[in-house]
Specification:
Two copies of one chain form a homodimer. With about 375 residues, chain A is an alpha/beta fold. The first copy, chain A, is about 40% helix and about 15% strand. In chain A, strand 15 and strand 16 (about 285-290) form a beta hairpin. The interface of A and B includes residues 44, 65, 321, 327 and 330 of A.
Chain lengths: ~375, ~375
């Protein structure tokens, strides 16, 4: 049996949405899926058993961060990322392409790769496609991503095109350098906010026949409508038989809009980041639990949620924890926000199954859940 | 049936140690016992389910902190501390006597009570025995402590004696003000580092016939030998049929030395505080997991421990989390340190049962576990 395969179980009659299953060496993932982000080999403030309890099917971890600390060779010695962080289910590692541009203090792009400075100690490093493949193979995730160049927003068309063409050449080099068969390699489509480039890139990446295809360079500061336009333009050229991963996108509204346009996989740090600031995603919109209005509110974070935090604790208690700067505030809100987002995805999958995805979007909008 | 009772099941043949059970409205506690400290209605970095998983039989929370934030009336509105923090097992609240002296920016002692300034906003507050009983009854723990005056170390004999006598008068006032029958009130013995005062105080508090008796004012900076001398001097005057609680004491060596001298209950913030600094208590002494020597050490925190952290993670991983300032480091080390300490107490209880408590102390010392 193949270590990786993707089955499309159903295609939505009214939208581009699909219901599928992605098979990996560490288990099956029902799609569309949301992947919690464990940047430094930990989903912030959550233990692996918390993640199993909310039933996260797969998590993402960051190549750039793990390369710098603790180092990919150390992770390899530990038996790979699954063993290092004690996570038994699938893992996807990004390629660091986004981080070397957004976090590296200064970076220089060459045809060979990107030179950047560590955000930790300022040390100089070079990422090439070959180097990144070495790192990702040492990390040993189920799914690795190609090294790409993510053009910032806004960028002019000539620069965006040059970055896209380099991304294609690097994708080829990644494919050649990636030798492991127990790890799937996904290509990444770029092209900025130019529909014609997006289409060109989707075709070029499709031609390379990766196990899965990702959409990079979106949700980088552009208006959401622009992102949706890009998705609509390129999606017809993204192979339907392969998983489509919309990188770095994951607020509830973007999840359902992305699914409607044909994306199958998502990841986003929003959930755990806002949790640490006291902000909860709920069926009725975002709630800032730090606010005084919740001081004596003895109802759960989200009255429609069945997560550990909502079943056991009140807004008043969580506000107290936030005000007292107690770690448990971050723990409970992270559990809630991740559970809630996974629950949204479950609702989406059920709606696709029952041909009522557009109705679900309307329901979310009506109750404030798109905020 | 009485809501509270204490059974001494066995008295050690060679030492002052006893095996017992303390019955409370929220369940039975096998003694000797260690109580994790949940200062602000949360044991730092641990959820109630983490605490149930390590099988903590009872936790302690702090009256001073909860009075200042979120306020005892808010906790009462929430249904009391058990409901507020979602902890189903017994809780003990201290009286704030120690905190108003150690944390209050400035404090003035009157016969009526202590005036102090909040460590949060500098606001002026007055704690009297009657006020503290009101607060503790609003919090609704299973066990409340009398309001006492804890003399600092060192203090001269006249001051220590005056503070002790005030503590006795306040204990009477607490007893009169404490009206709830679903909450046990414990008296507190003071007397500083003066054996004659300790004896006098033990007798005076014993005469008041509290449900349990505590030993305050130790482990306040004095050498450990001095604390043990005080325990030995006073213990003959602490009623044997009632639980004896040694307040604020709980490093593994002090636990076994305290039990040998007849103490039944302990609490200590050490476990969770050092956890947040990267320090683990182990069968073989303390391990600073932040240290470089553990960078590639793929063994568990403590090779003899069966806690969640030790069963799943390595020193190398935890060191990585510490270096990366990830919250999970504090979560895992807190789980470990609390589990380990509860396990020490279990070893102690088994050793009492089998008349080998002094041998156990020798074994701990030989393996480095007394450090």
């Amino acid at each position: 049996m193949q270590p990786f395969s993707f089955e499309v179980i159903k295609t939505c009659a009214q939208t581009g949405a699909r219901l599928g299953v992605l098979h990996t060496p560490h288990g099956d993932i029902e799609t569309p899926c949301y992947m919690p982000v464990g940047t430094r080999a930990t989903v912030k403030a959550m233990s692996p058993r918390d993640l199993l309890d909310v039933d996260a099917p797969i998590i993402l971890s960051n190549t750039y961060h793990l390369y710098l600390r603790p180092g990919h060779e150390l992770v390899r010695e530990a038996g790979g990322l699954h063993s290092f962080m004690a996570w038994p289910r699938p893992i996807l590692t990004d390629s660091g392409g986004f981080q070397v541009f957004s976090l590296g203090d200064t970076n220089r792009v060459y045809e060979d790769g990107v030179e950047f400075r560590s955000h930790i100690d300022g040390g100089k490093h070079l990422f090439t496609p070959e180097k990144v493949m070495q790192i990702e193979q040492a990390l040993g995730a189920d799914i690795a991503m190609c090294f790409d160049e993510c053009a910032p927003y806004p960028s002019d068309e000539p620069y965006t095109k040059a970055a896209m063409l380099r991304t294609h050449r690097w994708a080829k080099r990644c494919q050649q350098a990636h030798t492991g068969h127990d790890q799937a390699l996904f290509g990444i489509v770029q092209g900025g906010m130019y529909a014609s480039l997006r289409i060109e890139s989707a075709k070029a990446i499709a031609d390379m026949d990766f196990i899965g295809n990702a959409i990079g360079g979106l949700s980088v500061g552009e208006p959401k409508g622009m992102m949706y336009d890009m998705l609509e333009a390129m999606m017809p050229f993204m192979p339907p038989g392969k998983p489509r991963y919309l990188m770095g996108v994951g607020s509830p509204d973007c999840l359902i809009e992305g699914v409607i346009r044909g994306a199958d996989m998502f990841d986003c740090v929003l959930q755990t980041r806002i949790a640490r600031n006291g902000l909860a995603l709920t069926h009725f919109g975002r709630r800032m639990l730090r606010n005084k209005e919740f001081a004596r509110d003895f109802s759960p974070i989200d009255e429609n949620c069945a997560c550990y935090a909502c079943k056991n604790f009140t807004r008043a208690y969580i506000r107290h924890l936030i005000k007292a700067k107690e770690i448990l505030a971050a723990q409970l809100l992270s559990i809630h926000n991740i559970y809630y987002t996974l629950h949204c995805m479950k609702e989406i999958r059920e709606a696709i199954k029952e041909d009522r995805l557009l109705r679900l979007r309307g329901e979310w909008a009506a109750r404030g859940g798109m905020d």
